UniProtKB/TrEMBL annotation:
Gene3D superfamilies hit by this protein: Cytochrome c-like domain (1.10.760.10)
Electron transport found in the keyword field: yes
UniProtKB keywords: Electron transport, Heme, Iron, Metal-binding, Transport
GO MF annotation list: electron transfer activity; heme binding; metal ion binding
Record domain Cytochrome c: where: 67-153, 171-254, 274-358
PANTHER family with a match to the protein in the record: CBB3-TYPE CYTOCHROME C OXIDASE SUBUNIT FIXP, CYTOCHROME C4
Protein name: Cytochrome c domain-containing protein
Lineage: Bacteria, Pseudomonadati, Pseudomonadota, Alphaproteobacteria, Hyphomicrobiales
Protein origin, superkingdom: Bacteria
Entry annotated with the keyword Repressor: no
Stretches assigned to coiled coil: none
InterPro entries: Cyt_c-like_dom, Cyt_c-like_dom_sf, Cytochrome_c_Oxidase_Subunit
């Protein structure tokens, strides 16, 4: 046999590649969306997407808390409905003209496992318009979206609307220049209204929280300094002065007790009370109330009463995570330090103590 055949083969492959690239360069590949994909292209692209998602997906999660569904709905309304439609809203004509068109999720959710949905919502789908989650370090928020997507196929239009929006805005809504606009308040109340707060949801109660803390947090969400995909979308397009008006509005509303159980497991919450009031010097854990109690006098230290168990636990986990950016005030390093030595059982005890209708 001719000993030069490998060389010849390589030569022809190179020539083919040059011809191929030349053809692409000259415009042989049609990228016009108006002509649509051929069925085979569509099948291949979607097949590639399915295989890639399934290969990348991680472990199945713990069972997802049903209280996460409503916060997922609030975000879906702001960030996903435009492309995917909702039970009572058909997909926009603009979205249906995209290539590939965003599917009606009611029909496809059942074909994916939880961890696949997580993968799609976390990373988005390249070359399709499906965006990645706007905050890299917030897996907890992405799981809340998965909880929502799981419940979505069985949701009626009414049930969806009740969850995803606030029919009535609580508190005075004035029309003056210095008050937040009613449509913006409605957007916030879709997640933060008093009757939406729940033990297993980590949407914090903002009614009656210190005004300076609310204002600093909102500005930090806008700049991206405090990382949250849900809040990033919620404050998108608002001016800093509007954020200050929102802080002033919510700070004047009455604070409700935590949405948790009135009587938590007594040993757990007693352990929580000890840490809150005295800390544990032997383990280098400060007394939480030295900063969070009424006496600290610093309005940038948030009050913790009235928060849900899930909020307390989520925030403590974030402050412990070196990769996360959980703080929105200049004092956030103090909180990181306070959280550093907490163990999982301490976090459970503190959530039970602060998150129990006290
Ligand atoms: C700009 C338009 C757009 C927005 C906004 C958008 N998506 Fe998508 N989404 C798409 C497109 C396009 C696809 C199809 C990708 C494909 O098939 O390759 C898709 C696919 C998906 C899929 C996989 C469904 C399947 O079987 O193909 C899920 C799940 C999903 N999106 C959820 C969401 C969620 C949740 C949000 C909001 C956080 C969202 N999307 C926001 C355009 C969008
Ligand atoms: C999709 C649901 C959703 C919407 C809509 C939403 N929020 Fe939030 N908000 C959250 C979540 C979740 C957090 C917790 C973020 C975190 O873990 O850092 C949060 C946190 C906050 C905080 C920080 C409170 C604290 O105790 O640390 C403020 C202030 C806030 N939101 C105000 C608003 C305002 C004002 C609006 C309207 C412009 C709004 N939110 C709209 C879900 C939402
Ligand atoms: C030295 C002061 C200090 C101590 C001690 C402290 N914290 Fe904090 N904590 C802060 C500050 C400041 C923030 C606000 C951080 C930011 O957003 O920039 C905060 C925020 C929080 C939040 C978030 C509240 C919300 O509305 O989202 C929780 C929960 C919390 N702390 C719990 C605790 C617990 C539990 C302890 C006791 C183990 C503790 N803290 C001890 C200063 C402190």
């Amino acid at each position: 046999m001719d000993k030069r055949w490998p060389l010849m083969l390589a030569g022809s492959a190179a020539a083919l590649a040059v011809v191929g690239l030349g053809a692409i360069w000259l415009g042989a590949i049609d990228v016009r969306a108006s002509t649509g994909h051929w069925k085979i292209t569509e099948w291949v692209l979607h097949g590639v997407m399915r295989a890639s998602v399934k290969a990348a997906a991680g472990e199945a999660p713990q069972p997802l808390d049903p209280d996460l569904v409503a916060m997922g709905a609030g975000h879906f309304e702001q960030a996903c409905l435009f492309c995917h439609g909702a039970p009572d809203t058909p997909r926009s004509a603009l979205a249906r003209a995209m290539l590939p068109p965003p599917p009606d999720l009611k029909e496809v959710v059942a074909t994916w496992r939880d961890q696949d949905l997580f993968e799609i919502v976390q990373h988005g789908v390249r070359y399709s318009g499906m965006p990645a989650w706007p905050a890299k370090g917030r897996k907890d928020e992405v799981w809340a979206m998965v909880a929502f997507l799981r419940a979505y196929p069985d949701m009626t239009g009414d049930a969806y609307r009740r969850m995803a929006t606030a029919p009535e805005v609580a508190g005075a809504v004035a029309t003056g220049d210095r008050q937040p606009k009613a449509d913006v308040l409605a957007r916030c109340d879709a997640c933060h209204a008093a009757d939406k707060l729940a033990d297993g949801s980590f949407v914090p109660q903002i009614q009656g929280q210190n005004q300076a803390y609310l204002a600093a947090s909102l500005r930090a969400f806008l700049s991206g300094e405090r990382e949250s995909g849900m809040m990033r979308v919620a404050v998108n397009g608002l001016a800093p002065e509007e954020l200050d008006q929102l802080a002033a509005h919510y700070a004047t509303l009455a604070r409700a007790p935590s949405p948790g159980p009135d009587r938590p497991a007594p040993t757990l919450s007693e352990a929580g009370r000890m840490l809150a009031e005295r800390g544990d010097a032997s383990r280098d854990i400060p007394a939480c109330n030295s900063c969070h109690g009424a006496g600290s006098g610093n309005p940038l230290f948030p009050r913790l009463d009235g928060l849900s168990q899930a909020t307390i636990a989520t925030r403590l986990h974030l402050f412990q995570d070196k990769e996360a950016q959980p703080g929105g005030t200049p004092y956030r390093e103090l909180m990181r330090k306070a959280a550093r030595k907490l163990e999982e059982r301490d976090i459970k005890a503190l959530s039970a103590y602060y998150g129990s209708g006290q």
